[in-house]
Amino acid sequence: MKLATIGTSSITQQFVKAVKKTGRFDYVGAYSRSEEKAKQFSEEFGGSRWFTTLEDLAASNEVDAIYCASPNGLHFQQVSVLLRGGKHVICEKPIFANLEEFDEAVKLADEHHVYLFEAIRNIQTPVFKKLQQELPRAGQLRSAVLQLIQYSSRYDKFLDGEITNIFSPKFAAGALQDLGVYPTYVAVALFGEPERSVYYPVKLSNGIDGGGTLVLTYPGFVCTILCSKIAYSDAPSEIHGEKGTFRINNSSNIARLEWIDAHNKEVQPIATHFEEDDKIYEISNFADILEQNNKQEYLRLRALSRSVVKTMSSARKQSGIIFPND
Ligand SMILES: NC(=O)c1ccc[n+]([C@@H]2O[C@H](COP(=O)([O-])OP(=O)(O)OC[C@H]3O[C@@H](n4cnc5c(N)ncnc54)[C@H](OP(=O)(O)O)[C@@H]3O)[C@@H](O)[C@H]2O)c1
């Protein structure tokens, strides 16, 4: 499989490095708005081609799949061009701003017989998979507190008057979209689509959410998701059942899982696996699906992705945060 990339920021560099580590795709080259950047990026990672228009990229018969890491608000517009060109697409999280975009893109993918993936690394890690297997041990779930509270250096810029893409409603950004997507994926992958989702944002002066609390209601329990780009926490995330608690170190970089028995309060380590390039798991899974044409696994991931978009977008819109994409 031959892979090209969109975006020349550090996330694309990390992704291509992880691709090389897996050896599962051949790297063809980069698209950038700047020819100089496209050429430089391609050459740095051993690519032989570079692109300055999406149409050329979408039409290239040297490319099978494209990884898209542009600002969130551009995902739908760019991914649509690629799907129409008959390319498989791996789009960075959060894949799209709302269900209308999601359903339209899926329709395009199906019409052109290609696959559309969301790059979300946390649910593909070995420790998360262990948590999925072990979850029934907790008995009836009663609550969960999942969090991702990471102070952003771009907030310093915001305070200095510079609005970077990730703090801009124009680019379908904000804390829920950028960070809340990780714990929301954990919740939806473990517990399914919630009955209700309500978001309580902490809005900044331009109306974007610098942080917020997303409350997901399930039969018999409530999952609370805390996300923020304007504060810091190192606290773990927990899932509380009547028989005990599961604790994970972090909801985006899931590397450690513990079990705490509700009766004797003993803390038992269940799994520890730290992998710096944790994108290798999603990349390997996407490569397996494409090579084996594993439609069942593809549809499983796609349904999960749709549930996350639905959960986040309905709560966000109800909280009064509206993007141009809406
Ligand atoms: N999975 C993860 O761990 C992870 C981590 C960080 C970010 N992400 C995701 O990756 C995506 C990109 O995030 P980022 O922080 O790298 O974004 P960014 O720096 O704002 O932009 C990414 C790239 O998009 C292009 N771009 C920037 N502004 C643009 C504009 N106004 N119009 C058209 N193209 C523009 C630039 O490439 P050129 O200048 O070369 O065209 C840039 O390198 C987001 O969806 C984000 O959620 C994922």
CATH class group of the largest domain: Alpha Beta
CATH superfamily of the largest domain: Dihydrodipicolinate Reductase, domain 2
User: What is the fold-level CATH name, i.e. the topology of the largest domain?
Assistant: Dihydrodipicolinate Reductase, domain 2
Q: Could you give the distance between the termini?
A: 34 Å
* Approximate shape: globular
Query: Based on DSSP secondary structure assignment, what is the total number of beta strands?
Result: 14
The residue-averaged pLDDT reads: 98
Share of helix among residues? 25-40%
Structural class: alpha/beta
Please identify, by name, the CATH architecture of the largest domain: 2-Layer Sandwich
Assess the beta-strand content as a share of residues: 25-35%
What is the element string, with H for helices and E for strands?
Answer: EHEHEHEHEHEHEHHEEEEEEEHH
Order of strands side by side in the largest beta sheet?
8-9-10-7-11-12-13-14
Task: Note down, in words, how this protein is organized.
With 326 residues, the protein is an alpha/beta fold. The protein folds into 2 domains: 2-119, Rossmann fold, CATH 3.40.50.720; 123-274, Dihydrodipicolinate Reductase, domain 2 (2-Layer Sandwich), CATH 3.30.360.10. The chain is built from 10 helices and 14 strands. The protein has helices at 10-22, 35-44, 54-59, 75-84, 99-111, 126-134, 153-159, 175-191, 279-292, 295-318, and strands at 2-6, 26-31, 49-51, 65-68, 88-92, 116-119, 141-149, 196-203, 209-218, 221-228, 237-241, 244-248, 256-261, 267-272. It has an 8-stranded mixed beta sheet. The chain has a 6-stranded parallel beta sheet with strand order 3-2-1-4-5-6, sandwiched between helices. Strand 13 (256-261) and strand 14 form a beta hairpin. Helix 1 crosses helix 9, helix 4 runs parallel beside helix 5 (99-111) and helix 8 (175-191) packs across helix 10. The longest helix has 24 residues, at 295-318. It is globular and about 60 Å long. The two termini are 34 Å apart. The model has no long low-confidence stretch (mean pLDDT 98). The chain binds NADP nicotinamide-adenine-dinucleotide phosphate (NAP). Residues 7-9, 11, 32-34, 37, 69-72, 74, 92-93, 119, 121, 165-166, 178 line the site of NADP nicotinamide-adenine-dinucleotide phosphate.
